[in-house]
């Protein structure tokens, strides 16, 4: 599957219409971003059932600010509209595959319950 380019105009629609999205926050000038790009693209080919998307932090400053992206590349995973992972740094292929496997195994009912519990305690 080809990688989508996320913008402030299509972000909400993509998140609403898809239950598992991996997002690479990147910039053209970023060396580690360029190193991570083929790893991300390779994973998108191995996992055609998932949505792989990229956010150019230079062109989409509002999205980068909304997610408080301070370092790139940053990988984010959104499942069922919930950000379940966000971490800066270029991952090697094996680590990305392991992360995808862990995210697939998440019980989203438990995740949502945990979020609700956190809100009531705050």
From TrEMBL:
<keyword id="KW-0249">Electron transport</keyword>
<feature type="disulfide bond" description="Redox-active">
    <location>
        <begin position="30"/>
        <end position="33"/>
    </location>
</feature>
<protein>
    <recommendedName>
        <fullName>Thioredoxin</fullName>
    </recommendedName>
</protein>
<dbReference type="InterPro" id="IPR005746">
    <property type="entry name" value="Thioredoxin"/>
</dbReference>
<keyword id="KW-0676">Redox-active center</keyword>
<comment type="similarity">
    <text>Belongs to the thioredoxin family.</text>
</comment>
<dbReference type="InterPro" id="IPR017937">
    <property type="entry name" value="Thioredoxin_CS"/>
</dbReference>
<dbReference type="GO" id="GO:0015035">
    <property type="term" value="F:protein-disulfide reductase activity"/>
</dbReference>
<feature type="active site" description="Nucleophile">
    <location>
        <position position="33"/>
    </location>
</feature>
<feature type="site" description="Contributes to redox potential value">
    <location>
        <position position="31"/>
    </location>
</feature>
<dbReference type="GO" id="GO:0005829">
    <property type="term" value="C:cytosol"/>
</dbReference>
<feature type="site" description="Deprotonates C-terminal active site Cys">
    <location>
        <position position="24"/>
    </location>
</feature>
<feature type="active site" description="Nucleophile">
    <location>
        <position position="30"/>
    </location>
</feature>
<dbReference type="InterPro" id="IPR036249">
    <property type="entry name" value="Thioredoxin-like_sf"/>
</dbReference>
<feature type="site" description="Contributes to redox potential value">
    <location>
        <position position="32"/>
    </location>
</feature>
<dbReference type="InterPro" id="IPR013766">
    <property type="entry name" value="Thioredoxin_domain"/>
</dbReference>
<dbReference type="Pfam" id="PF00085">
    <property type="entry name" value="Thioredoxin"/>
</dbReference>
<keyword id="KW-1015">Disulfide bond</keyword>
<feature type="domain" description="Thioredoxin">
    <location>
        <begin position="1"/>
        <end position="105"/>
    </location>
</feature>
<keyword id="KW-0813">Transport</keyword>
């Amino acid at each position: 599957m080809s990688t989508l380019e996320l913008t402030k105009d299509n972000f909400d629609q993509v998140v609403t219409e898809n239950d598992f999205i991996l997002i690479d926050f990147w910039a053209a000038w970023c060396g580690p971003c360029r190193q991570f790009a083929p790893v991300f693209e390779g994973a998108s080919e191995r996992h055609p059932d998932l949505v792989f998307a990229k956010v150019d932090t230079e062109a989409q400053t509002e999205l980068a600010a909304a997610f408080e992206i301070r370092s790139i590349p940053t990988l984010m995973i959104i499942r069922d509209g919930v950000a379940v992972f966000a971490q800066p740094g270029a991952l090697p292929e094996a680590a990305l595959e392991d992360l995808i496997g862990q995210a697939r195994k998440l019980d989203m009912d438990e995740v949502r319950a945990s979020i609700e519990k956190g809100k009531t305690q705050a």
